[in-house]
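Summary of Year 1 activities. Much of the first year was spent building the evaluation harness for sequence design. The harness presents a backbone, in tokenized form, and records the residue chosen at every position. We chose the following record to illustrate the format because it has been used consistently in internal testing since the harness was completed.
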């Protein structure tokens, strides 16, 4: 029996877990970003010369959160109890902790420790996922690049202030 295109399930029906991963990661990430948006404290900090304008962060994180969610979904589908899946959860916790620590608690030194642990967990995810699911690992490469940049930015702010 063949399924005709008009009988095929809609993409949302075929991929409910993917939709859930995207909604949760993007929803939590953007909500945290909104709740801890840079305010007067951040505006008054001395910043490195390579600090991008504030408007860059929302589109960058939106794209990254979608990539993170897809990588998590792929990893979850392959093996929910795998080392890459545990690393995926660890990096999510660290990711979601950084903004409140930096922007709300005003602790750039602690935030630097968190972002460096985040970078280590991202790189560990890439290394372990590479053997099992190269696509998931590749989806994390832009994230690793951005968090490397964010680490340098956080270090610069901590050093200058």
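For this record, the design step produced the sequence shown next.
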């Amino acid at each position: 029996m063949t399924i005709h295109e008009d009988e095929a399930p809609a993409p949302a029906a075929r991929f409910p877990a993917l939709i859930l991963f995207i909604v949760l990661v993007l929803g939590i990430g953007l909500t945290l970003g909104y709740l801890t948006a840079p305010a007067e404290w951040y505006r008054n900090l001395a910043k490195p010369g390579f600090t991008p304008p504030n408007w860059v962060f929302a589109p960058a994180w939106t794209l990254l959160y979608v990539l993170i969610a897809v990588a998590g979904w792929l990893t979850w589908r392959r093996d929910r109890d795998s080392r890459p899946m545990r690393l995926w959860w660890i990096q999510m916790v660290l990711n979601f902790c950084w903004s409140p620590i930096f922007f709300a608690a005003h602790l750039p030194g602690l935030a630097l420790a968190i972002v460096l642990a985040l970078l280590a967990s991202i790189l560990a995810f890439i290394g372990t996922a590479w053997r099992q699911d190269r696509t998931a690992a590749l989806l994390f490469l832009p994230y690793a690049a951005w968090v490397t940049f964010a680490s340098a930015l956080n270090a610069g702010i901590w050093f200058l202030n």
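Residues 108-132 form the longest helix (25 residues). Quantitative recovery figures across the full test set are reported in Table 2.
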